[in-house]
């Protein structure tokens, strides 16, 4: 594999594992984060430190981002990276971002002779640390082909997939997140129906749960109820509005997704969901249940 000079911006929850795996593969890594302690930790592992965003872009042929919120990615690109981008440079967004903004930024970079690959991931910190992430890549196919082996350093080769033109990786990440969120919400709601009607979560688990098919997931969610952790089950509320916007832009509806979002959107943000402070579907259900004390 060719060795690259790679800049990495955003080394919070997922970034350190990806950086370390890239360094293990022999690549030259320069990192930047607004938290100096995060930078220092990777410098001790062999990375170099950039002084700021512009310095990161200046010294690297490939610039990767793993930022916590879509607006932060847009801000960093618009205010720092685009102005400093040069012909032949490749930017790779490993975070979850807006399809429309991804396509806009890709077009702006392409006009300067640079490229953007959207490459959101799934698998959490364990997948990042072990190099077994699912990675969904969108962008120009020839660019993906050139750098495909980089993604296989960070992800499971069986689940590193080229999805199509710019924004396609973000579409597939949306499918991933909605599949998790809607399925989890359905199980939360069905178990809540039983619990709020006076049946114990233990009885529901024994009666409906099991080893195969939907029963396995039902069992896992019921266990969260039994452990008193039902409100922590993620339904991806913090990202749903972005997926609704993408669907609206394309001219179709996501009725189940929209219903879930409207049910929770004005609720108290009290749990971490997709690494974001967000509303809890279980909390909103029980809060509205007359006479029930969660």
From TrEMBL:
Keyword Oxidoreductase: yes
InterPro entries the record matches: 6-PGluconate_DH-like_C_sf, 6PGD_dom2, 6PGDH_NADP-bd, HIBADH-related, NAD(P)-bd_dom_sf
Active site: 173
UniProt key word Oxidoreductase: yes
Keyword entries, A-Z: Oxidoreductase
Domain of life: Bacteria
Annotated transmembrane regions: none
One annotated GO molecular function: NADP binding
Gene3D superfamilies in the record: N-(1-d-carboxylethyl)-l-norvaline Dehydrogenase, domain 2 (1.10.1040.10), NAD(P)-binding Rossmann-like Domain (3.40.50.720)
Similarity comment: family membership: Belongs to the HIBADH-related family.
PANTHER family (UniProt xref): 2-HYDROXY-3-OXOPROPIONATE REDUCTASE (PTHR43060:SF3), 3-HYDROXYISOBUTYRATE DEHYDROGENASE-LIKE 1, MITOCHONDRIAL-RELATED (PTHR43060)
Name the UniProt record assigns to this protein: NAD(P)-dependent oxidoreductase
Organism: Paenibacillus piri
